[in-house]
Amino acid sequence: MQILDGKVAAQAIKDELKITVAQRVIEGKKVPHLAAILVGNNGASETYVAAKVKACEETGFKSTLIRLEQDISENKLLEKIEKLNNDPDVDGILVQLPLPKHISDKKVINAIDPDKDVDGFHPVSVGKMVEGIPAFIPATPYGIMLLLEHYKIETKGKHAIVLGRSNIVGRPISILLSGNSNPGNCTVTICHSQTKNIKELCLQGDIIVAAIGIPGFVKTDMVKDGAVVIDVGITRIEDATKKSGFRLKGDVDFENVSPKCSWITPVPGGVGPMTIAALMKNTFRSCEMSN
Question: Among all residues, which ones are annotated catalytic?
Answer without folding.
Answer: 52, 96, 119
